[in-house]
Write a structure and sequence with these properties.
Two copies of one chain form a homodimer.
Chain A: H1 2-6, E1 15-26, E2 29-37, E3 46-47, E4 50-52, H2 59-71, E5 77-84, E6 95-103, E7 117-124, H3 135-152, H4 166-177, H5 183-192, E8 196-202, E9 212-216, H6 218-226
Parallel strand pairs in A: 1-6
Antiparallel strand pairs in A: 1-2, 1-4, 2-3, 2-7, 5-6, 8-9
The first copy, chain A, binds a DNA duplex (27 and 27 nucleotides) through helix 5.
Chain lengths: 239, 239
DNA sequence: ACAAAAGTGTTCGTACTACACCCATGC
DNA sequence: GCATGGGTGTAGTACGAACACTTTTGT
């Protein structure tokens, strides 16, 4: 066995990292959390938070660690996107990265610069230009994944505060898909699925009729799902 | 820079492999191509075809190479699933694998045992029990991906011969989804999308009314897609 | 003539689309 | 009282679901 391993030694010269596309939703816009690197390569470039995976660390755990270091958050939506591994994507040698995306509630934490970063900041998705490594591509792929996921899985709520209005939810879908949706139909569709809990409270301090607040009832959703509900929204065609 | 790299040397001790879930469709059943390993670890186990990625090789290219070695095929549908990387999934050290799946036409090639394999054979998806490494999990994830993909992308045709009948196509969907579909509705839906080309020929030598043969018109599909067609089939509820 | 699969048309209900007006609050 | 977004009902349409019989071939 040790004999067998010997002949494969030549392959054990690579490293891998995880990179995390952390999405947030604030001010009606979809955001991504980026760090300004202070290490080579790509020092002073904006980049996705990520780091090398430890020798005995699970990939998911590594992604979670990166998330925790930057946000302090533990229990958030986290899903692997895929691996990116062009040779030559990293100066130090062969490094493939396993990309993840997570959905967080922006209000839940204060940004904190980690050891790898000089700065941490939310960026609007449109305004993103040159990022370190192949991170622009990763962000694109992450966004496409998110667009599809929120169509058929109730993950949008991960980006909203625990109590939100239907309009908040609609704006979220509009921001992610880049479309505008018809208010009445959107509300009917969402409410007909019956997994939103009317909190019996309303907004306060707004200069117009205050909107009702709702919460996503996860238990109820799972019950309905067992019973054959299939969550699915249409993107519509309007720009 | 060399200085900078030095401190990261500890991370460059890993290897990665690609593993390929090669799907085929034959005899009305969905199949997976497996090899019987002749090397440690897991010698004599059935496994997904896969191998170490070369130091300067692109991931997609590595997956293609594995496919070519076993099937001789080059231009086939190939898509990355994701990375699997529990520590301890490989005896030789830290090895993560990047899994791919491909869709091939069974009739297009003769199976040939590669250097890594004693035997190569198609296996029915149900009959799969113990595989090497975490390959059972990978097959499951691949199957789930395929189930979703064929709902909204015209990839099913990759599994069928260039000329096929509507019943062939229906059986394919039924096999992948594990449901039975209603013939008239299925045909109406498919034909209404207008991207199947009626070849003007029919089956021969069957002991019943011969079925018309169709081909998937890829150019036409792309045109229609630009114009806003959205391909989508429903799984239905019937078992 | 019989077996075996191909092929087809209609009805019904559901769910999406489009659209315009009144309501509650802050200033 | 005015500006601002919250909230609702209805009619038309399109699409999916269900369903049974005739047609063509080989044996």
């Amino acid at each position: 066995m040790v004999q067998a391993k010997k002949s494969f030694d030549g392959f054990f010269k690579s490293a891998f990292t995880v990179d995390n596309v952390i999405f947030g939703f604030d001010d009606g816009k979809l955001k991504v959390l980026l760090i300004k690197r202070n290490e080579e390569p790509f020092a002073n470039y904006w980049a996705l938070p990520g780091y090398f995976v430890q020798q005995h660390e699970d990939l998911d755990a590594a992604a979670q660690r990166v998330l925790r270091e930057i946000t302090g958050l533990e229990q958030v939506y986290l899903e692997q996107i895929r691996a990116f591994g062009s040779p030559g994507r990293h100066d130090f040698g062969r490094v493939i990265t396993v990309a993840y995306y997570s959905l967080v509630k922006v209000a839940d934490f204060e940004l904190q610069a980690a050891s790898i970063a000089q700065k941490v900041a939310w960026h609007n998705l449109e305004g993103i230009d040159t990022l370190a490594f192949d991170h622009e591509e990763i962000v694109q792929v992450a966004l496409n994944r998110l667009k599809r996921r929120i169509r058929t899985q109730p993950v949008g709520f991960e980006l909203l505060p625990p109590a939100f209005t239907l309009t908040d939810l609609q704006h979220l879908y509009e921001a992610v898909w880049g479309v505008s949706l018809e208010k009445r139909n959107f509300r009917k569709k969402i409410l007909s699925m019956n997994f939103l809990q009317d909190l019996g409270r309303s907004q306060t301090g707004v200069a117009h009729r205050p909107a009702k607040l709702y919460a996503f009832d996860e238990d109820r959703y799972h019950t309905l799902e067992e019973e054959g509900l299939n969550f699915e929204l249409k993107e519509g065609k309007r720009k």
